[in-house]
Amino acid sequence: MPRLMLTDKRWQKLLQLMKSTGRIYNKPEHRMTFEGILFRLRTGIPWRDLPTEFGSWSAVYRRFNLWSKKGLLNMLFNELAKLSDYDWVFADGSIVKAHQHSTGAATADNECIGKSRGGNSTKIHLAVDSGGLPIYFELSEGQRHDIARAQSLVDHLKEVNIFVGDKGYDSDALRKYIEAKGGASVIPKRNYGQDIDKDSVDWCLYKYRHLVENAFARIKHYRSISTRYEKLARNYASMVSLAFSMMWLPMYC
Q: For the Insertion element IS402-like domain, which residue ranges apply (predicted)?
């Protein structure tokens, strides 16, 4: 029997949240289906190679794809993240290599896969709370600059108190945007040859920016996250949401 990831208490918590959406029924096979999706998240194997203990691979994939279309896994993450502490928010972006099998989707959209000298890639833009737990994320092409999604990250915060980012977020427009929402920013300035007032940044608080790096490190333990295999951006986003949900579960049970 393959190694499972959910205890009875954690499965009951997830099942309760999924049923509360009104989009699924309490079917007994859902637990092994969910475990099959988690197994694929953890190992990154092709769907066809899923162990038969989880059921037919095609049934597991079809249910994952259906739940992705319904936004169910994103809803799970958003519900679990309601305990977020917004005193400090740390933001950053991380590039993920896109596997060659993730390209070629039969859609007009680029599915958040960009091309650069490093090859095909996707970027995860993430905001975490004071405890380093994920609040909100977005996907973009790998070559997109962090600042391109910064205002969107701020817009999706329930509260804007102190926003902490690295030099990739150095923008006077962003600082003013945060101030207009009643918050403050801790973002060091780039050195373009002019004198910089280094005392203008709270370096003590800035050191805690490692919390967002830690969040990326944790989800990249899952091979389906550290390398993108999904052709559709919504399916990869669902996998990322699932990985973040697994970070939140220990806070509940």
A: 6-76
**Category of 152 on φ-ψ map: left (φ > 0), alpha (ψ -120 to 50) or beta:** alpha
Q: How far apart are CA 201 and CA 191, in angstroms?
A: 14
Q: What is the pTM of this model?
A: 0.95
Q: Which two tokens stand for residue 94?
A: 């991380």
**Tens digits of residue pLDDT in 30-79:** 999 999 999 999 999 999 999 999 999 999 999 999 999 999 999 999 99
Write 161-164 long-range contacts (CB < 8 A, 24+).
161/86, 161/87, 161/88, 161/89, 162/87, 162/88, 162/89, 162/186, 162/205, 163/89, 163/91, 163/187, 164/88, 164/89, 164/90, 164/91, 164/205, 164/206, 164/208, 164/209
| Residue position matching structure tokens 């953890």 | 42
- Tell me the C-alpha to C-alpha distance, in Å, between residue 5 and each of 159, 224, 231: 33, 15, 25
Angstrom distance (rounded) from CA 51 to CA 211: 35
